Predict the 3D structure of the following.
Amino acid sequence: MLAYWVAEDKDVPARVVLLEIPSRKEIRANNLFNVADCKIHWQKAGDYLCVKVDRYAKIKREKGDVKYSGMYYNFEIFHMREKNIPVDSVEIKEPIHAFAWEPIGSKFAIIHGEPSNNSVSFYNVKSGQAPILLKKLDKHFCSHLFWSPAGQYISLLKSVILELWNLWIQQTLLPCVLQNIIKRLTLNGIPLEDLLLLV
């Protein structure tokens, strides 16, 4: 399966297309309006596809330059294993700085907000439902998200501090349990790659 997007052209909307390979058969397409940019994020297991859509309220063209205002953001979540590949959408009004799928599982995390006042939000994707907000860490500045290869654990990189979190969801759909910070590690002189092996 191949996923790609095509930019808007005057009155023709932007399109996100899923293409079967090698037959080149179009499996699914979504039309999108007021699109400045798209980023495509596959979940490692291939169960989900997220298209982060940067949208605008107004566009201004000056001497070949394009300026957007009133920016907002959508996450278009494609359920790849379900019949007809349904799509759910999550809208965020704040700038998005990072997105990361849980490699095995159905959760994703985003860093959003103004650069000096970031928040981290965790969502869960369920069959037949819009993504559910599990937990929001307000005013929790960090710059990168790293899931452990098996899921459940996520590390939030804050400049020179690496926080390790356990994001475990009860099967009874109770609110998620975020354990206290397991450890804070200062990255003084230690290669980041070595620390990420601990996750």
Q: What stands out?
A: The domain at 2-145 is CATH 2.130.10.10 (Methylamine Dehydrogenase; Chain H). Confidence is low (pLDDT under 50) at residues 169-199.
